[in-house]
Amino acid sequence: MTASADVTAALQGKFPQIAPRASGDHPAINVPLAEAPAVLTSLRDEHAFDFLVDVTAADWGVDTSPRFTVFWHLFSTTTHAYVRVAADCTSDTEPVAPTVSDLWPAANWHERETYDLLGITFSKHPDLRRILMWDGYPYHPLRKDFPLAGIDTPLPDLEVGDLTGATAKPAPMMGGPFVASAGEINLTDAEPRAKDESWTERREKPASE
Amino acid sequence: MVSANNELAYNTKIEGEVIVTKADAVINWLRSSSIWPMPMGLACCGIELMASGNSQFDIARFGAEVMRFSPRQSDCMIVAGTVTYKMAPHVRRIYDQMAEPKWVIAMGACASSGGMYRSYATLQGVDKIIPVDVYVSGCPPRPEALLDALIKMQAKIRREPSARNLLASA
User: What is the mean predicted confidence (pLDDT) over B86-97?
Assistant: First the structure.
């Protein structure tokens, strides 16, 4: 399914670089990153997509280019239609996207979350700080090159870190992550479990793997 | 004529208004019977912690119903929930602000070991930053499990050489 013909066609009349995007659910369009604020303004003011549902991004993998795509999900409270707008970031190492927090105040925290977890810098954002991880955390955890268990980092409070000797250590995965077996009829067998239980906190994972 | 014994309380007249006991027994009796918890409710375990204060479970039976939201007034920190790395220093600071003697209950899988959160954001057990006296299993534990932990901690308090510790610190 692609964007409903009227919205896409109307937008394409104004922004010829817009292309329909393959989508499994709602209409979606690809736009060049530089035109995204103008397209979103047009969707909000001329097509009644007045409600910003979500701002997020995707990391397609370290070796992929373009690596990062920013998404905006819009909803119309009058026509009850959804539309998804996607824009690829030009840089694969220092991705930058324009902020839409001036169009929808709701975008403020969504963009802070996207910056925190994926490292997309939203230019002209009024207050681009981390929102989930603590200030000064050096990584962006939802990037594909960040391990789920984490990377050894000092605690946010250095005084407490010195006192206790604790750091944000990589979590022992105990052979995890724990994965449910798809298609298993027996619910006991379908329970999420580690695929490799040969190593634990005490017996570390063999270095060869 | 035989009169019924109408004495409802301890008759001090028998021993001449003197009770003979050990200092440890008195101190530990006082301490274990009036544990004022610091409810560190960080996740769903906090709901079970609240439930254990309700009349169905009635944590007051063990003298621990006075949930104090000031660490200065509490004896026992009940860490009920997932401790993230962002929260961990605050938990430690609140523990440091509690007056001695103080105890800690790690309530539930997350506080005890990180639980199901084997991830970059979660402290893998609150015992990495504060000393824990009693661990409670469960996700979340039933209020009965918390009451059982409280009884176990009372038993632990009653074994402490409190008088010696007080004299040593004086």
Answer: 94
